[in-house]
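During the reporting period the student researcher (J.K.) took over the structure-prediction task from the postdoctoral fellow and processed the backlog of single-chain submissions. One of the processed entries is reproduced below for the supervisory committee.
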Amino acid sequence: MAATMLATDTAPKGEAVAVLATPDEKGPLVDEGEIGAGGSGSVRKSYDPNLRRVVATKVLSPELVKSPGNLRRFVEEARLMALLDHPNIVPVHDLLVDERKTAYFTMKLVRGRTLEAIVENQPSDSGGISPLHGHISVFLKVCDALAFAHSRRIVHCDLKPANIMVGEFGEVYLMDWGIASRQPDGTEAPVSTPRRSVRGTPAFMSPEQAEGRVSDVTQRTDVFGLGAVLYFILTGRAPFEGKTATQALAHAKAGRYKDSEDAAPVPPPPGLARIVRKAMARDPRDRYESVIELRNSVSGVLQSDWSLPTKVFSPGAVIVAEGDWADAAYIIVRGRCEVSKIIDGERRVLRTLETGEVFGETGILSGNVRTATVQAVDEVTTKMVTRELFRGELGSDTWLGKFVMALADRFRELDTKMAARAGGDGGK
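J.K. obtained the following C-alpha coordinates:
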Protein backbone atom coordinates (compact mmCIF):
# COMPACT_ATOMS: atom_id res chain seq x y z
CA MET A 1 0.00 0.00 0.00
CA ALA A 2 1.39 3.36 -0.96
CA ALA A 3 2.05 5.96 1.69
CA THR A 4 -0.54 8.72 1.86
CA MET A 5 0.77 12.28 2.00
CA LEU A 6 -0.85 15.28 3.60
CA ALA A 7 -1.80 18.14 1.29
CA THR A 8 1.33 20.18 0.63
CA ASP A 9 -0.46 23.52 0.76
CA THR A 10 -1.18 23.00 4.46
CA ALA A 11 2.48 22.76 5.45
CA PRO A 12 4.25 25.93 6.62
CA LYS A 13 6.94 27.18 4.23
CA GLY A 14 10.28 25.55 4.88
CA GLU A 15 8.80 22.71 6.97
CA ALA A 16 8.89 19.12 5.81
CA VAL A 17 5.56 17.70 4.72
CA ALA A 18 4.30 15.03 7.16
CA VAL A 19 3.76 11.55 5.77
CA LEU A 20 1.33 9.08 7.29
CA ALA A 21 2.72 5.74 8.36
CA THR A 22 2.55 2.90 5.87
CA PRO A 23 0.75 -0.10 7.39
CA ASP A 24 2.78 -3.27 7.55
CA GLU A 25 1.23 -6.73 7.57
CA LYS A 26 -0.03 -6.22 11.11
CA GLY A 27 -1.37 -2.75 10.55
CA PRO A 28 -0.03 0.73 11.32
CA LEU A 29 -0.06 0.31 15.11
CA VAL A 30 3.15 -0.13 17.09
CA ASP A 31 2.73 -2.69 19.88
CA GLU A 32 4.03 -1.41 23.24
CA GLY A 33 3.18 -4.40 25.44
CA GLU A 34 0.31 -6.13 27.19
CA ILE A 35 -1.93 -4.29 29.65
CA GLY A 36 -4.06 -7.22 30.66
CA ALA A 37 -5.34 -10.59 29.52
CA GLY A 38 -8.55 -12.55 29.79
CA GLY A 39 -10.20 -15.68 28.50
CA SER A 40 -10.93 -14.28 25.05
CA GLY A 41 -7.69 -12.47 24.37
CA SER A 42 -5.64 -9.54 25.58
CA VAL A 43 -5.61 -5.76 25.79
CA ARG A 44 -2.39 -4.19 24.60
CA LYS A 45 -0.92 -0.71 24.67
CA SER A 46 -0.31 0.51 21.13
CA TYR A 47 1.08 3.62 19.47
CA ASP A 48 -0.78 5.03 16.48
CA PRO A 49 1.87 6.82 14.33
CA ASN A 50 -0.74 8.40 12.09
CA LEU A 51 -2.44 10.32 14.90
CA ARG A 52 0.60 10.23 17.18
CA ARG A 53 -1.27 8.95 20.20
CA VAL A 54 -1.26 5.91 22.44
CA VAL A 55 -4.37 3.72 22.37
CA ALA A 56 -5.60 0.48 23.89
CA THR A 57 -6.00 -2.44 21.50
CA LYS A 58 -8.24 -5.38 22.34
CA VAL A 59 -7.06 -8.44 20.45
CA LEU A 60 -9.04 -11.64 20.06
CA SER A 61 -6.85 -14.69 20.73
CA PRO A 62 -5.74 -16.58 17.58
CA GLU A 63 -7.55 -19.73 18.69
CA LEU A 64 -10.88 -17.96 19.07
CA VAL A 65 -10.55 -16.09 15.79
CA LYS A 66 -11.05 -19.43 14.06
CA SER A 67 -14.47 -19.83 15.68
CA PRO A 68 -17.25 -17.99 13.81
CA GLY A 69 -19.27 -17.67 17.00
CA ASN A 70 -16.43 -16.14 19.02
CA LEU A 71 -15.47 -13.85 16.18
CA ARG A 72 -19.06 -12.70 15.81
CA ARG A 73 -19.32 -11.89 19.54
CA PHE A 74 -16.02 -10.00 19.44
CA VAL A 75 -17.19 -7.86 16.54
CA GLU A 76 -20.54 -7.37 18.27
CA GLU A 77 -18.76 -6.05 21.37
CA ALA A 78 -16.89 -3.44 19.33
CA ARG A 79 -20.05 -2.40 17.49
CA LEU A 80 -22.07 -2.14 20.71
CA MET A 81 -19.42 0.07 22.29
CA ALA A 82 -19.32 2.19 19.15
CA LEU A 83 -23.03 2.88 19.61
CA LEU A 84 -22.44 4.23 23.12
CA ASP A 85 -21.13 7.75 22.66
CA HIS A 86 -21.10 8.78 26.32
CA PRO A 87 -18.50 10.52 28.55
CA ASN A 88 -18.41 7.53 30.93
CA ILE A 89 -17.96 4.86 28.26
CA VAL A 90 -14.62 4.35 26.51
CA PRO A 91 -14.85 5.42 22.86
CA VAL A 92 -13.94 2.90 20.14
CA HIS A 93 -11.69 4.22 17.38
CA ASP A 94 -11.38 1.39 14.88
CA LEU A 95 -12.21 -2.26 14.18
CA LEU A 96 -10.16 -4.60 12.00
CA VAL A 97 -10.79 -8.16 10.88
CA ASP A 98 -8.33 -8.91 8.07
CA GLU A 99 -8.45 -11.63 5.47
CA ARG A 100 -6.36 -13.91 7.67
CA LYS A 101 -8.91 -13.31 10.45
CA THR A 102 -6.77 -11.34 12.83
CA ALA A 103 -9.32 -9.40 14.88
CA TYR A 104 -8.79 -6.34 17.05
CA PHE A 105 -10.34 -3.00 17.86
CA THR A 106 -8.76 0.14 19.25
CA MET A 107 -10.14 2.41 21.93
CA LYS A 108 -9.07 5.17 24.25
CA LEU A 109 -6.34 4.17 26.67
CA VAL A 110 -7.55 4.86 30.21
CA ARG A 111 -4.86 5.55 32.79
CA GLY A 112 -6.03 5.02 36.33
CA ARG A 113 -7.25 2.37 38.79
CA THR A 114 -10.30 0.18 39.06
CA LEU A 115 -12.93 0.94 41.68
CA GLU A 116 -12.11 -2.47 43.13
CA ALA A 117 -8.48 -1.45 43.73
CA ILE A 118 -9.48 1.94 45.14
CA VAL A 119 -11.88 0.46 47.70
CA GLU A 120 -9.59 -2.42 48.66
CA ASN A 121 -6.55 -0.20 49.11
CA GLN A 122 -8.16 2.67 50.96
CA PRO A 123 -6.53 3.33 54.36
CA SER A 124 -8.03 1.34 57.21
CA ASP A 125 -7.75 4.49 59.32
CA SER A 126 -8.51 7.58 57.28
CA GLY A 127 -8.60 9.91 60.26
CA GLY A 128 -12.19 8.90 60.97
CA ILE A 129 -13.39 10.45 57.71
CA SER A 130 -15.10 7.99 55.41
CA PRO A 131 -14.15 8.05 51.68
CA LEU A 132 -17.71 7.01 50.90
CA HIS A 133 -18.59 10.32 49.27
CA GLY A 134 -15.98 9.87 46.54
CA HIS A 135 -17.02 6.27 45.89
CA ILE A 136 -20.69 7.27 45.55
CA SER A 137 -19.72 10.02 43.08
CA VAL A 138 -18.07 7.34 40.95
CA PHE A 139 -21.13 5.12 41.31
CA LEU A 140 -23.47 7.86 40.08
CA LYS A 141 -21.39 8.30 36.93
CA VAL A 142 -21.62 4.57 36.28
CA CYS A 143 -25.39 4.90 36.63
CA ASP A 144 -25.32 7.66 34.01
CA ALA A 145 -23.36 5.45 31.60
CA LEU A 146 -25.68 2.52 32.13
CA ALA A 147 -28.85 4.59 31.79
CA PHE A 148 -27.54 5.81 28.42
CA ALA A 149 -26.75 2.23 27.34
CA HIS A 150 -30.26 1.16 28.31
CA SER A 151 -31.70 3.97 26.20
CA ARG A 152 -29.95 2.20 23.30
CA ARG A 153 -31.40 -1.15 24.49
CA ILE A 154 -27.96 -2.44 25.51
CA VAL A 155 -27.60 -4.41 28.75
CA HIS A 156 -24.08 -4.72 30.20
CA CYS A 157 -24.52 -8.03 32.10
CA ASP A 158 -21.14 -7.95 33.89
CA LEU A 159 -21.22 -5.07 36.37
CA LYS A 160 -18.51 -5.28 39.03
CA PRO A 161 -15.95 -2.92 40.61
CA ALA A 162 -13.15 -4.40 38.49
CA ASN A 163 -14.96 -3.18 35.36
CA ILE A 164 -15.13 0.42 36.57
CA MET A 165 -12.07 2.55 35.87
CA VAL A 166 -11.30 5.85 37.59
CA GLY A 167 -8.82 7.96 35.64
CA GLU A 168 -5.96 10.06 36.92
CA PHE A 169 -8.10 13.20 36.78
CA GLY A 170 -11.36 11.80 38.09
CA GLU A 171 -12.69 10.40 34.81
CA VAL A 172 -14.98 7.40 35.28
CA TYR A 173 -15.47 4.68 32.67
CA LEU A 174 -17.68 1.61 32.61
CA MET A 175 -15.51 -1.01 30.91
CA ASP A 176 -15.70 -4.51 29.39
CA TRP A 177 -18.84 -4.86 27.31
CA GLY A 178 -17.77 -8.33 26.16
CA ILE A 179 -20.95 -10.13 27.22
CA ALA A 180 -23.32 -7.20 26.73
CA SER A 181 -26.49 -7.90 24.78
CA ARG A 182 -28.75 -5.75 22.70
CA GLN A 183 -32.41 -6.20 23.51
CA PRO A 184 -34.79 -6.52 20.56
CA ASP A 185 -37.21 -3.66 19.86
CA GLY A 186 -39.70 -5.68 17.86
CA THR A 187 -38.20 -4.75 14.50
CA GLU A 188 -35.11 -6.92 14.65
CA ALA A 189 -34.16 -10.35 15.88
CA PRO A 190 -32.21 -10.58 19.13
CA VAL A 191 -28.59 -11.63 19.08
CA SER A 192 -28.53 -15.43 19.00
CA THR A 193 -27.57 -16.85 22.39
CA PRO A 194 -27.73 -20.40 23.79
CA ARG A 195 -31.05 -21.06 25.50
CA ARG A 196 -29.23 -21.58 28.79
CA SER A 197 -25.88 -19.87 29.22
CA VAL A 198 -24.16 -18.78 32.44
CA ARG A 199 -22.09 -15.73 31.59
CA GLY A 200 -20.73 -13.13 33.98
CA THR A 201 -18.95 -12.98 37.35
CA PRO A 202 -20.53 -15.26 40.00
CA ALA A 203 -19.59 -12.98 42.93
CA PHE A 204 -21.71 -10.15 41.48
CA MET A 205 -24.20 -12.10 39.36
CA SER A 206 -27.98 -11.83 39.45
CA PRO A 207 -30.01 -15.02 40.14
CA GLU A 208 -31.39 -15.13 36.60
CA GLN A 209 -27.86 -15.00 35.18
CA ALA A 210 -26.58 -17.59 37.64
CA GLU A 211 -29.38 -19.94 36.60
CA GLY A 212 -28.60 -19.37 32.91
CA ARG A 213 -32.05 -17.94 32.15
CA VAL A 214 -30.90 -15.80 29.22
CA SER A 215 -34.43 -14.85 28.20
CA ASP A 216 -34.96 -13.26 31.64
CA VAL A 217 -31.93 -10.96 31.38
CA THR A 218 -33.24 -7.40 31.14
CA GLN A 219 -32.36 -3.91 32.29
CA ARG A 220 -33.33 -4.98 35.81
CA THR A 221 -30.46 -7.46 35.63
CA ASP A 222 -28.13 -4.47 35.42
CA VAL A 223 -30.04 -2.85 38.30
CA PHE A 224 -29.10 -5.91 40.34
CA GLY A 225 -25.48 -5.51 39.23
CA LEU A 226 -25.45 -1.89 40.35
CA GLY A 227 -26.81 -2.98 43.71
CA ALA A 228 -23.95 -5.49 43.97
CA VAL A 229 -21.41 -2.76 43.15
CA LEU A 230 -22.96 -0.50 45.80
CA TYR A 231 -22.77 -3.42 48.24
CA PHE A 232 -19.03 -3.68 47.55
CA ILE A 233 -18.59 0.06 48.11
CA LEU A 234 -20.32 -0.17 51.49
CA THR A 235 -18.74 -3.39 52.73
CA GLY A 236 -15.46 -3.83 50.85
CA ARG A 237 -16.51 -7.34 49.78
CA ALA A 238 -18.51 -9.05 47.07
CA PRO A 239 -22.07 -10.08 47.95
CA PHE A 240 -21.63 -13.71 46.84
CA GLU A 241 -18.46 -15.18 48.25
CA GLY A 242 -17.22 -18.75 48.26
CA LYS A 243 -14.05 -20.78 48.34
CA THR A 244 -14.69 -21.63 44.70
CA ALA A 245 -16.55 -20.04 41.79
CA THR A 246 -19.05 -22.90 42.05
CA GLN A 247 -19.88 -21.98 45.65
CA ALA A 248 -20.25 -18.31 44.74
CA LEU A 249 -22.51 -19.30 41.86
CA ALA A 250 -24.72 -21.33 44.21
CA HIS A 251 -25.10 -18.31 46.50
CA ALA A 252 -25.92 -16.14 43.48
CA LYS A 253 -28.62 -18.58 42.32
CA ALA A 254 -30.24 -18.38 45.74
CA GLY A 255 -29.74 -14.61 45.98
CA ARG A 256 -28.23 -15.30 49.39
CA TYR A 257 -25.85 -12.69 50.83
CA LYS A 258 -25.05 -11.11 54.19
CA ASP A 259 -26.90 -7.83 54.62
CA SER A 260 -24.66 -4.81 54.06
CA GLU A 261 -25.43 -3.41 57.51
CA ASP A 262 -24.03 -6.59 59.05
CA ALA A 263 -21.15 -7.08 56.60
CA ALA A 264 -19.72 -3.56 56.67
CA PRO A 265 -16.88 -2.79 59.11
CA VAL A 266 -18.47 0.62 59.72
CA PRO A 267 -22.28 0.87 59.69
CA PRO A 268 -23.34 2.20 56.27
CA PRO A 269 -25.95 4.93 55.89
CA PRO A 270 -29.33 3.20 56.40
CA GLY A 271 -30.69 4.79 53.23
CA LEU A 272 -27.97 3.23 51.08
CA ALA A 273 -28.40 -0.15 52.79
CA ARG A 274 -32.11 -0.05 51.90
CA ILE A 275 -31.26 0.77 48.28
CA VAL A 276 -28.96 -2.26 48.11
CA ARG A 277 -31.72 -4.53 49.42
CA LYS A 278 -34.21 -3.35 46.82
CA ALA A 279 -31.77 -3.34 43.90
CA MET A 280 -30.61 -6.87 44.78
CA ALA A 281 -34.06 -8.38 45.28
CA ARG A 282 -34.13 -11.96 44.00
CA ASP A 283 -37.30 -11.35 42.00
CA PRO A 284 -36.62 -8.76 39.27
CA ARG A 285 -40.13 -7.38 39.75
CA ASP A 286 -39.18 -6.27 43.27
CA ARG A 287 -36.17 -4.28 42.08
CA TYR A 288 -36.06 -0.70 40.84
CA GLU A 289 -37.77 -0.41 37.48
CA SER A 290 -34.83 1.43 35.94
CA VAL A 291 -31.30 2.62 36.55
CA ILE A 292 -32.60 6.18 36.63
CA GLU A 293 -34.97 5.32 39.50
CA LEU A 294 -32.10 3.73 41.41
CA ARG A 295 -29.85 6.71 40.71
CA ASN A 296 -32.50 9.13 41.94
CA SER A 297 -32.81 7.15 45.17
CA VAL A 298 -29.07 7.36 45.78
CA SER A 299 -29.12 11.08 44.98
CA GLY A 300 -31.91 11.50 47.50
CA VAL A 301 -29.75 9.94 50.20
CA LEU A 302 -27.09 12.53 49.40
CA GLN A 303 -29.39 15.13 50.88
CA SER A 304 -29.50 13.33 54.23
CA ASP A 305 -26.87 12.93 56.92
CA TRP A 306 -25.06 10.06 55.15
CA SER A 307 -22.15 12.33 54.22
CA LEU A 308 -21.40 13.36 57.80
CA PRO A 309 -17.86 12.32 58.81
CA THR A 310 -17.69 8.98 60.60
CA LYS A 311 -15.43 8.58 63.64
CA VAL A 312 -14.75 5.36 65.50
CA PHE A 313 -13.58 5.34 69.13
CA SER A 314 -12.03 2.37 70.92
CA PRO A 315 -13.35 1.21 74.32
CA GLY A 316 -12.36 3.64 77.08
CA ALA A 317 -11.59 6.50 74.69
CA VAL A 318 -12.67 9.96 75.83
CA ILE A 319 -14.79 11.44 73.06
CA VAL A 320 -15.42 14.83 74.68
CA ALA A 321 -13.90 16.10 77.92
CA GLU A 322 -15.42 18.40 80.50
CA GLY A 323 -13.94 21.88 80.19
CA ASP A 324 -12.77 21.47 76.58
CA TRP A 325 -13.90 23.80 73.83
CA ALA A 326 -17.04 22.51 72.11
CA ASP A 327 -16.30 22.18 68.40
CA ALA A 328 -18.57 19.29 67.37
CA ALA A 329 -21.62 17.24 68.29
CA TYR A 330 -21.94 13.48 67.83
CA ILE A 331 -24.64 10.99 66.83
CA ILE A 332 -24.06 7.45 68.10
CA VAL A 333 -24.38 4.97 65.24
CA ARG A 334 -23.15 1.92 67.13
CA GLY A 335 -22.02 1.27 70.70
CA ARG A 336 -22.52 2.82 74.17
CA CYS A 337 -21.06 5.81 76.00
CA GLU A 338 -20.99 6.98 79.62
CA VAL A 339 -21.60 10.59 80.60
CA SER A 340 -19.73 11.72 83.71
CA LYS A 341 -19.14 14.97 85.56
CA ILE A 342 -16.90 16.18 88.37
CA ILE A 343 -19.11 16.99 91.38
CA ASP A 344 -17.64 18.02 94.74
CA GLY A 345 -14.22 16.96 93.50
CA GLU A 346 -15.32 13.47 92.43
CA ARG A 347 -16.19 12.11 89.01
CA ARG A 348 -19.72 10.74 88.90
CA VAL A 349 -21.33 8.74 86.09
CA LEU A 350 -24.63 10.40 85.27
CA ARG A 351 -26.06 8.15 82.57
CA THR A 352 -25.39 5.83 79.63
CA LEU A 353 -26.00 6.83 76.02
CA GLU A 354 -27.15 4.21 73.50
CA THR A 355 -27.27 3.91 69.71
CA GLY A 356 -29.27 6.74 68.16
CA GLU A 357 -28.65 9.27 70.94
CA VAL A 358 -26.91 12.62 70.47
CA PHE A 359 -24.42 14.45 72.65
CA GLY A 360 -22.41 17.66 72.43
CA GLU A 361 -25.16 19.60 70.71
CA THR A 362 -25.61 22.34 73.32
CA GLY A 363 -21.90 23.09 73.28
CA ILE A 364 -21.76 23.86 69.55
CA LEU A 365 -24.98 25.83 69.77
CA SER A 366 -23.96 28.05 72.66
CA GLY A 367 -20.29 28.32 71.75
CA ASN A 368 -19.05 27.43 75.22
CA VAL A 369 -16.99 24.72 76.89
CA ARG A 370 -18.13 21.15 77.57
CA THR A 371 -20.00 20.67 80.84
CA ALA A 372 -19.47 16.89 81.00
CA THR A 373 -17.19 14.10 79.79
CA VAL A 374 -18.40 11.41 77.38
CA GLN A 375 -16.38 8.19 77.24
CA ALA A 376 -16.79 5.08 75.05
CA VAL A 377 -17.87 1.97 76.96
CA ASP A 378 -17.20 -0.37 74.03
CA GLU A 379 -16.19 0.41 70.44
CA VAL A 380 -18.31 3.37 69.43
CA THR A 381 -19.07 4.56 65.90
CA THR A 382 -20.36 8.10 65.56
CA LYS A 383 -21.39 10.66 62.98
CA MET A 384 -19.77 14.02 63.68
CA VAL A 385 -21.47 17.39 63.19
CA THR A 386 -19.00 20.27 63.35
CA ARG A 387 -19.91 23.75 64.53
CA GLU A 388 -19.31 25.17 61.05
CA LEU A 389 -21.47 22.55 59.37
CA PHE A 390 -24.29 22.97 61.86
CA ARG A 391 -24.38 26.74 61.64
CA GLY A 392 -24.01 26.63 57.85
CA GLU A 393 -26.92 24.22 57.45
CA LEU A 394 -29.11 25.92 60.04
CA GLY A 395 -28.33 29.50 59.12
CA SER A 396 -27.71 31.39 62.35
CA ASP A 397 -28.87 34.63 60.70
CA THR A 398 -32.34 33.23 59.89
CA TRP A 399 -35.39 33.35 62.14
CA LEU A 400 -35.23 29.57 62.57
CA GLY A 401 -31.55 29.76 63.50
CA LYS A 402 -32.18 32.47 66.07
CA PHE A 403 -35.06 30.44 67.51
CA VAL A 404 -32.89 27.34 67.94
CA MET A 405 -30.01 29.36 69.45
CA ALA A 406 -32.40 30.89 71.98
CA LEU A 407 -33.67 27.46 72.95
CA ALA A 408 -30.08 26.26 73.36
CA ASP A 409 -29.26 29.15 75.67
CA ARG A 410 -32.34 28.44 77.81
CA PHE A 411 -31.46 24.75 77.98
CA ARG A 412 -27.88 25.54 78.99
CA GLU A 413 -29.07 27.83 81.77
CA LEU A 414 -31.34 25.08 83.07
CA ASP A 415 -28.54 22.54 82.78
CA THR A 416 -26.19 24.75 84.83
CA LYS A 417 -28.79 25.18 87.57
CA MET A 418 -29.50 21.45 87.71
CA ALA A 419 -25.79 20.67 87.88
CA ALA A 420 -25.35 23.11 90.78
CA ARG A 421 -28.18 21.47 92.73
CA ALA A 422 -27.70 17.74 92.27
CA GLY A 423 -25.02 17.00 89.71
CA GLY A 424 -27.18 17.68 86.75
CA ASP A 425 -28.75 15.30 84.27
CA GLY A 426 -25.74 14.74 82.02
CA GLY A 427 -25.18 18.17 80.55
CA LYS A 428 -23.13 18.12 77.46
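The committee noted the following: Residues 399-422 form the longest helix (24 residues).
J.K. will present the remaining backlog at the next meeting.
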